[in-house]
Each structure stands twice: as structure tokens, then as C-alpha cells.
């Protein structure tokens, strides 16, 4: 009878992608992986572990670069404690148009669907994309999504078999 009472409580109802981040033990984090530092999704570029001191745990020193702004963050965490790791999704789109207000029109080749809600990046990356697009080159842009933010992080010229 106790088993029947517990059937209504199920912990496996959450779907994948339902959370923006998940906990991971600090010692399990790796260089080039992702971590949240000061609530920002960062790529780990440096990691070092100090030896256990007389007061307890080994400490992990890490330096991360914000994947959207490029800003550098540093954090120190005991190796046995958990840090939050962001869910990061990477997707490629065909660039169809660049509007006057700085937004891009993208085509999802898998769903054959368009979207117009991402801004052209500022700086060199945005200038390079605009220059190639204005030169009538077909471009594939890579969009990174994490923590409710999306941004174009890189591009490549599409291989056109007709040329």
C-alpha cells in the first residue's frame, strides 16, 4: 500500500532543456568547458588547483570568459563544492538578410523556418559578416544560446557546389 501512495510523486517528469543550468562538482570542471561565474555563462580558459591546506579542502581557481560579452571573470571554489554549469546550445543558420535596424534574418535549414530576432554582433565580427554579405557571399552563422540569451559567435562562407 505504501508503494501505491508514492506512485503519484515522480521526479522524472522534467524534460531535457527545462533548466538553464545544472550543478557540477568543482573538481569535475575542465578547461574549455562552461561554468556560471557571477551568474554569467563563461568558457573556462584557465584552471588550477591548490593543495589541501590545514583548514580543509583543495581550492580550484578558475578564469572564465563570458561567452556573450567577452568579459573576463575569476572565481575560487573548494574542489568538493558544486558550481552551476549553464546549458549551452549551438546551432547553425543560413544568413538571408541584414536589416537596417541591425537585426539579421536567419533560415533554419533543418526546420526550413526563418527567424528575425537576433542582432548582428557589434565590432569586428559584425563588420566582417556585413562585408561578406554585401559582397554577395552565402554565409552560415553559428548562434550560441544560454541562460535566455542568444548571439552570433562566428560565421563561415557556405560552400556553393554551383560555383
TrEMBL record:
Keyword Phosphoprotein appears in the UniProt entry: no
Listed InterPro entries: IF5A-like (IPR001884), IF5A-like_N (IPR048670), IF5A_C (IPR020189), NA-bd_OB-fold (IPR012340), Rib_uL2_dom2 (IPR014722), Trans_elong_IF5A_hypusine_site (IPR019769), Translation_prot_SH3-like_sf (IPR008991)
Domain (Translation initiation factor 5A C-terminal) ranges: 87-156
Disordered: region residues: 1-22
Compositionally biased spans, kind Polar residues: 12-22
Post-translational events: eIF-5A seems to be the only eukaryotic protein to have a hypusine residue which is a post-translational modification of a lysine by the addition of a butylamino group.
Pfam families membership: eIF-5a, IF5A-like_N
One Gene Ontology term, aspect cellular component: cytoplasm
Gene3D superfamilies: 2.30.30.30, Nucleic acid-binding proteins
GO MF annotations in UniProt: ribosome binding; RNA binding; translation elongation factor activity; translation initiation factor activity
Major place of residence: cytoplasm
Compartments reported by the entry: Cytoplasm
Compositionally biased intervals (Acidic residues): 1-10
GO BP annotations, alphabetical order: positive regulation of translational elongation; positive regulation of translational termination
Family label: Belongs to the eIF-5A family.
Entry protein name: Eukaryotic translation initiation factor 5A
